Amino acid sequence: MRISKFKGFMLALLFTVTLGAAVNVQVTANAATYTTVSTKSVTKAAYHKKSAAGAIYNKAHNKRIATMKGYPNTTWYVTQQATLKHSNSKGIYYYVANKSGSVKGWIWHGYLKKGKAPFGLKYAKNAVALDYTTGKAVWSKRANTARPIASVSKLMTLYLVLDKIDNGSGKWTDIVKTNNRGLVAMGNSASCGGFRFYSNHKYTVKELYDAALLDSSNNAAIALGQWVSGSNAKFIKKMNAQAQSWNLDKASFVSASGLENSDLKAFGYNYGSANANMVSAKDVALIARHLIKDYPQILTDGSVGSKRVNGQLCYNYNNMLQGRKYYQASLNVDGLKTGYTPLAGYCFVGTGQKAGKHRVITVVLHDENEFTETKSLMNHAYSLGMDA
């Protein structure tokens, strides 16, 4: 994970400064008076956008409040109906408000369709909700398209670490080589590091496992990969071989940590011709499923909020855990992995099990609101069934 947590919000202000007739007509139309012919209350009913066209205005129609394009998956609740007159024409308008009441106003009825809006995620470019028990996707959004996945790549790295310990060829107490100049520099990097390799300490597999899982340490993940396979190149080949053994045809790895080669090159750890790990949301979910199924301790380890490793605070950025901002008790979220690079955007693999339901695994890639959207996705997945 890149250290930068800054989320850029772009505010585009488009000004057309023209004195042409076309502009004058538009301004006149927007400023023209809308008069109310009649208004009546109606039984509250749910509607959603018919297309991307249309906007919500105040009743005088001289202030635009929101566009339908900006609210693609919002359910609007109609409580009033009015006939408004503009020039020589009349139209039926509905008074609408979203569920929270934070956006409300009047819109021409023809822009709406009766019924609740279909579920969707506004920000995630790719997403999936997977039933852990069956392995089937219950909801998806471009889930079979491979894209950069940042530090959620570490789920594969951690799987192979656990596999080595499980098969008896390694131990938690093994000392991992961490004195490589590139790994030391990476730990000191403002953008790619955070967990430092000190020369006076010998790091164990368990310490680096905790650093990679909780703090998303890149140098810890790479060092663990070298411990597993003997070299960075051999480990990446092992990652790809493991993906192939699971028949994940939308998964290709060039990095043990999830950093892109454009970042890794400065530390001597670039590999292959592609710039980034490219994995689909569904294949990420399937990797998580294998990890949880074969090594369920990942849920206990991944639900730790923070831990000190060699005096360094390893903070878990999963903000859906208990005590965090996006926690919802009924979802029982106990994992799993965050990720971010500027190229990959904010990524999150979440998992939890609601009482009486199967465990759910969710993946959102290149999101702007990863925890809010994961919470919505989990709740929607459970609304579709998944009964135990």
From TrEMBL:
Any GO MF annotation of the entry: serine-type D-Ala-D-Ala carboxypeptidase activity
Active site feature: 151 (acyl-ester intermediate), 154 (proton acceptor), 216
Peptidase S11 D-alanyl-D-alanine carboxypeptidase A N-terminal domain boundaries: 124-368
Highest taxon of source: Bacteria
Segments crossing the lipid bilayer: none
Single Gene Ontology BP annotation: proteolysis
Binding-site residues, substrate: 337
Annotated signal sequence range: 1-21
Keywords per UniProt: Carboxypeptidase, Cell shape, Cell wall biogenesis/degradation, Hydrolase, Peptidoglycan synthesis, Protease, Signal
Assigned protein family: Belongs to the peptidase S11 family.
Protein name, per record: D-alanyl-D-alanine carboxypeptidase
Organism from which the protein derives: Levilactobacillus parabrevis ATCC 53295
Phylogenetic classification of the source organism: Bacteria, Bacillati, Bacillota, Bacilli, Lactobacillales
